[in-house]
Amino acid sequence: MQSLIVTEGDSVTLHTGVTELHKGELTWHFIADKSLIALINRAYEAFSTMDGPNGRFRDRLKLDNNTGSLTIINIRSEHAGVYEAQIFSDNTSSKRFKVTVYARLPVPVIIRNYSQCSSSSSSTSHYNCSVLCSVVNVSAVSLSWYKGNSVLSSISVSDLSISLSLPLEVEYQDINTYSCVINNTISNQNTHLDINTHCQPCPDDLPVFNIAFLCAAASVLIVVIVVMCCKKWRKTGQERKSSAKCDPKTRTVVRSLMKVLQDVLQTKSDKTNAVYENVPKNKSR
């Protein structure tokens, strides 16, 4: 028995090994349901293909009228199984083929693993990025992370059609090449990890930057208002005495407000710096 392995959507030809069928009869059977799917009869010049039970082979079979070889077009998983060609001539002979059909592999998808983002009790994500590589509805495959040509981690599934995910943690400044690969017996698909694209700062860290920016802007705004107020009222000596800037009580209030803003900025400074560290820098080439 000859074994053939193909991918869904491809075509496969089952060769009889005959150069030319001059006389006699040839039949093709799909053993799973013992159905006749193709026939050549030289005596009656009959050449035909059949749809099989439930139209399984409708518009998918092509018969070579000279050699009797059978081609299955746009093959699907339902066409996997054993096929038998029988030749009835001066000598009766038969030939069997076992056809295995694998699903076409999807391209792995890499996303940021936001569940591992930084928290108040963890600082590792300030320096490391966690990503997930995923594929859906797959069977009889392996999913692996590669660093260059070396396998870092791998997970496999047998015949069940399920979804797979495989995590990876890298440093923001890592310049190594990483790729996620899905493969089966006959083919593979891969996606390369782009740290600049896949490792954006965690969403929870972004408001820290916004708060710091707003506090700084508010500080500048207060200073501008005080200066404008003083300029407006510095027209006479009497008015200057009552101006906002020269009034001791007003100065005390302004100083207190500035102190509060400075405290807020100081409290957020560490987290803000961490966010800047999280933003990947361009890799050296």
Automatic annotation (TrEMBL):
<dbReference type="InterPro" id="IPR007110">
    <property type="entry name" value="Ig-like_dom"/>
</dbReference>
<dbReference type="InterPro" id="IPR003599">
    <property type="entry name" value="Ig_sub"/>
</dbReference>
<keyword id="KW-0472">Membrane</keyword>
<protein>
    <submittedName>
        <fullName>Uncharacterized protein isoform X3</fullName>
    </submittedName>
</protein>
<keyword id="KW-0812">Transmembrane</keyword>
<dbReference type="InterPro" id="IPR036179">
    <property type="entry name" value="Ig-like_dom_sf"/>
</dbReference>
<feature type="transmembrane region" description="Helical">
    <location>
        <begin position="208"/>
        <end position="230"/>
    </location>
</feature>
<feature type="domain" description="Ig-like">
    <location>
        <begin position="108"/>
        <end position="196"/>
    </location>
</feature>
<dbReference type="InterPro" id="IPR013783">
    <property type="entry name" value="Ig-like_fold"/>
</dbReference>
<keyword id="KW-1133">Transmembrane helix</keyword>
